[in-house]
Specification:
By secondary structure, the protein is α/β, with parallel strands linked by helices. Helix content is 38%, strand content 15%. The chain has an 8-stranded parallel barrel with strand order 1-2-3-4-5-7-13-14, surrounded by 4 helices. A two-stranded parallel sheet has the order 6-8. Strand 11 and strand 12 form a beta hairpin. Helix 6 runs parallel beside helix 8, helix 8 crosses helix 11 and helix 12 packs parallel to helix 13. It is globular, with a radius of gyration of 21 Å.
């Protein structure tokens, strides 16, 4: 059998609390920033205390109550890893609470125990596109330096509670998304200035490093990583100006990895801050904290884009909150996200060459409109083809010498889209009967890709073409 992935390679899927759990005020949970974004990350913000708005995420796919059934399906596929997030507001409903919410802690105890029964290792994100809304109202989100301490307290609380159950951790999901969606990323309301955004980002980077230090101290046999939105850009032409501009724009997202993996601000950011009139409040203690670096690099990968210095209007390709110049050599998904499997091998090589730390692909998948045929089956060959082509490139990167920890596909079960709050944008191997208006039975149904992914895992990629 031609196995393409080593025995230690973890296979599974990735979900986020605010996109699957529902139960948005159950068992003492507080309001999060996700709860006030009923139309998705880029949509209108609604104060739930002042407006009676139904948020599809209030119920989502009801994973909060149905997780044993869903985990059993993941186990049937052969998952060895499930990436999930803890809802910060289940542990500290207001963010600055004196004591944690025991009901929230107990919920994740039960969830991790269920995973353990199926020999599925949890990979836990501390903050995945949500934070306590009370911290936004009372402290200005991550603009408030006090939030660093609140996050560290939260991190230490869950490390202490789950130290024997969770050995793989991530700090912030797609930390660089703050540049494009500051409310989601750093809890900044309205239209913040560039200086305000980068100051909030700095506070978050310090908090991330303090969480890394806490994990190293409290769970020495655990590993903790960062999580980047992999936004690799190509020059549209070989014009040296395009090549240089691409290099500069790639620095916008690589900066986050550079700080978290190297422990200091890179020189190119000093120039960026000067050129843009940005002055940050950075203390000596901050610089000392940043020296505590992550053990591995994790990232999402969905698409690539192009850069051009030519001022003529170019065709755009939008996806995952990014708006880039389209690549004329690539096809696009139904949502306009360009499909570039070779780009995954490229970014893996770039990140490994840059950091020399193990890499973990913690999001990759195809959002598409799935339809049931006359027999009630979902023949999602388009998803199979997409994932096949990307996993083939992961195997190629391993041959290139890239140290890989694993691969968790985004949305192994249909969930609510972060960017658009739609159910119709489906990623899963498991279909959930719910539509964009919240109608449906929430019944789970296996798609054709379910058995295909099961074979990928059981053969360690030997069935890939």
């Amino acid at each position: 059998m031609n196995e393409k992935f080593p025995e230690h390679f973890l296979f599974g899927g990735a979900i986020a609390a605010n996109q699957v759990e529902g139960a948005y005020l159950t068992d003492g949970k507080g309001l999060s920033t996700s709860d006030i974004q009923p139309y998705g990350v880029l949509g209108e913000v609604v104060d739930r205390a002042e407006a009676d708005i139904t948020n599809i995420k209030d119920i989502a796919i009801d994973f909060y109550h149905r997780y044993p059934q869903d985990i059993a399906l993941f186990a049937e596929m052969g998952f060895t890893c499930l990436r999930l997030s803890i809802a910060w507001t289940r542990i500290f409903p207001n963010g600055d609470d004196e004591v944690p919410n025991e009901e929230g802690l107990a919920y994740y105890d039960a969830l991790f125990d269920e995973l353990a029964r199926h020999n599925i290792q949890p990979l836990v994100t501390l903050s995945h596109y949500e934070m306590p809304y009370a911290l936004v109202k009372n402290y200005g989100g991550w603009a408030g330096r006090e939030v660093i301490g609140f996050f560290e307290k939260y991190a230490r609380t869950v490390f202490a509670r789950y130290q024997h159950k969770v050995k793989l951790w991530l700090t912030f999901n797609e930390i660089n998304v703050s540049l494009h969606a500051p409310l989601t990323g750093v809890g900044l309301s309205g239209t913040p200035t560039q200086n305000e955004v980068y100051q909030a980002i700095h506070h978050q980077l310090v908090a991330s490093s303090k969480a890394v230090r806490a994990c190293h101290d409290m769970i020495p046999d655990a590993k903790i990583g960062n999580m980047l939105l992999g936004a690799m850009l190509y020059p549209l032409t070989c014009d040296p100006q395009d090549v240089m501009q691409t290099h500069i724009q790639n620095h916008e997202w690589l900066f986050f990895g550079d700080v978290q993996a190297r422990g200091y601000y890179p020189g190119y950011m000093a120039r960026f801050f000067v050129d843009n009139g940005i002055t940050l409040n950075i203390t000596d203690d901050d610089l000392s904290s940043l020296k505590e670096t992550v053990d591995f690099i994790s990232f999402s990968y969905y698409m690539t884009g192009c850069v051009s210095t030519d001022e003529e209007e170019k065709e755009k390709a939008s996806g995952n909150m990014l708006n880039m110049i389209a690549n004329p050599y690539l096809q696009s998904s139904q949502w306009g996200w360009q499909i570039d499997p070779i780009g995954l091998r490229y970014i893996l090589n770039v990140l490994y060459d840059r950091y020399q730390k193990p890499l973990f692909i913690v999001e990759n998948g195809l959002g598409a409109r799935d339809t049931l045929d006359d027999n009630g089956d979902i023949n999602d060959d388009y998803r199979i083809n997409y994932l096949n082509d990307h996993l083939v490139q992961v195997a190629e990167a391993i041959k290139d010498g890239v140290d890989m920890m694993g691969y968790t596909s985004w949305g192994p079960i249909d969930l609510v889209s972060a960017s658009t709050a739609q159910m119709s944008k489906r990623y899963g191997f498991i279909y959930v009967d719910r539509d964009d208006n919240g109608n449906g039975t929430l019944e789970r149904r296996k798609k054709k890709s379910f058995n295909w992914y099961k074979e990928v895992i059981s053969t360690r990629g030997a069935n890939l073409k």
